[in-house]
Amino acid sequence: MDNPADHEDEARSGIGREAVRGRADTGTLGKAIAVLDIVASADQPMRFTDILARSDQPRGTLHRQLSNLVEEGLLSLGRDHSYSVGIRLLKFAAKAWAGNQFRVIAEPHLRRLHDLTGETVHLGVLRGNEVIYLDKVESRQAVRMYSQIGNASPVYCTGVGKAGLSALPDAELQAVVASIRFRRFTDSTLVTPEALLREIEEIRASGNAYDREEHEPGIRCVAAPLHSADRSFVGGLSVTGPAYRISPELLESWAVLVRNAAGAIMEDMGARLGPRT
Q1: Does the pTM of the predicted model rise above 0.85?
Q2: Are the C-beta atoms of 76 and 85 separated by less than 8 Å?
Q3: pLDDT digits over 7-16, tens only?
Q4: CATH superfamily membership of 99-273
Q5: How confident is residue 86, by pLDDT bands cut at 50, 70 and 90?
Q6: Which of 75, 77, 102, 264 keeps 20 to 30 A from 86, CA to CA?
Q7: What are the tens digits of pLDDT across the range 50-63?
């Protein structure tokens, strides 16, 4: 149950009504997960003031959340009073990674696609209006792109993200697109819902999505959608590399390879995890 003092803290801090209602909806567990997400997403350990600036929780509540998370081993408190991911959370992550059936099913197909193209292959899943990368097979080339398993990227300017959007039912697609705060990363980034929805229609017709230097300058990729029969799981598969090495024509030639790999993964998912429609 929420402490009444928390609500007094909220009133004094001037936090907006929407933020307060959001916290009431998520409850104590949701607040703790929000704090974990802030710390785990940071590139380096965070001090209390840094977490407070990125959190919508009042100071007193945040202090208690951090203390509880440290006590449970989910966060670690350094000698410089900064917070980082705790050993217990890393153990949970390792366990989840080892037991992820979808990743295990997809892995041989990722490696086969990598053998055919020689470039970096990514596997990702949609989470709201972001795509989370679950697996990666690194390029054989000397110059490689930087990416990390577990990282999140926007759905509207990445090949895997747009591929995943194309597999959503229309109502869910509209809801996700409405939640996006568009930001221009490059001159090629799609920055309106209308432009994104037009491209989703093209992806549904062709079976392939593209990132034509839309998220990072000099990076191109071709992707294809992945989904379970009931669309409870939606994601994508892509081949990615630097633009100087991958011409638009080469990218197009890989489109069928990516579609075939995605189809093979979905067939294996249906055989091992349930029927596919």
Answers
A1: no
A2: yes
A3: 433 333 332 3
A4: GAF domain (3.30.450.40)
A5: confident
A6: 102
A7: 999 988 888 888 88
C-alpha 173/C-alpha 179 separation (Å) is: 10
Domain segments of the chain: what residues? Answer: 4-86, 99-273
Candidate CATH numbers 1.10.10.10, 3.30.465.10, 2.40.128.50, 3.40.50.80; the one for domain 4-86: 1.10.10.10
Q: Are 154 and 139 in contact (CB under 8 A)?
A: no
Q: How many CB atoms lie within 10 A of CB 256?
A: 13
Number of alpha carbons in the 13 Å side-chain half-sphere of residue 163: 32
Neighbours of 31 (CB within 10 A): 21
Q: Tell me how far apart the alpha carbons of residues 92 and 87 are, in angstroms, rounded to a whole number.
A: 9
DSSP string, 246-271: --HHHHHHHHHHHHHHHHHHHHHHHH
